[in-house]
Amino acid sequence: MEVVIAPAQELAVLAADAIEALLRRRPDAVLGLATGSSPLKVYDELARRHADEGLSFAGARAFMLDEYVGLAADHPERYRNVIDVEIASRVDLEPGAVRGPDGLADDLPAACAAYETAISDAGGVDLQILGIGTDGHIAFNEPGSSLASRTRIKTLTQQTREDNARFFDGEVDQVPTHCLTQGLGTIMEARHLVLLATGAQKAEAVHQLVEGPVSAMWPATVMQMHPHATVLVDEAAASRLQLANYYRQTYAAKPAWQGL
Ligand code: F6R
Q1: CATH architecture for the domain at 2-252
Q2: Which residues, judged by CB distance below 6 Å to any ligand atom, belong to the binding site of ligand 1?
Q3: What are the structural domain ranges in the chain?
Q4: In 3-state terms, what secondary structure has residue 14?
Q5: Is the pTM here over 0.85, yes or no?
């Protein structure tokens, strides 16, 4: 696992560099997209590169991590709509190239199974962008999630609903209670995991993710078992890392050609 500690804008550039390198190598790459605040600067940087430098997503496909259950099709916080606004509509992804779990399906377990099939039919995800919850969730795999879980319905913790109330006019009761989420086992099959975390509120979760024992209590710790995981954090999110100086030295001495 590689840990890079840098200001938020630099982290976004690094993540965008990795996505750009992938798209140049493989124009039909399969991207994994996260919602929430953490990836927003990355999406801004990708949109800028598309507009200013011609970076093309025309051959790419993308899969979302998760979706709320039951939010109306036109609800602005439905993750499908958030992803359209934040990235899909700002680049040249083909209509239909972005898929997400269907939180409005009549048969939710069938929708989850269909989503797993769609990911594997696409050949799997090449690069998965991730954020982390203050309780250590990735996607919406809340504490106690099976480390081998697949796409399924989950109940959001009170903590996550409170954290996300800022997207719902500060009203926690407006935050759905359930979601569909890729499982930890699903996420672990992506070929490169790139997690972004900023701010002191993420410091404990980041410490557990990188340095804690692998445990369903901190679901993100499963990333320690991934052969190619990159953790991009600012100083505040890195503030509880015991080996922060080692990560800094390692990154400072890294050959430039190596990339993330
Ligand atoms: C969103 C997702 C979540 C968020 C996490 C952090 O698709 O999968 O795991 O990444 O809740 O959210 P932010 O980035 O808003 O702090």
Answers
A1: 3-Layer(aba) Sandwich (3.40)
A2: 34-38, 65-66, 131-133, 137-140
A3: 2-252
A4: helix
A5: yes
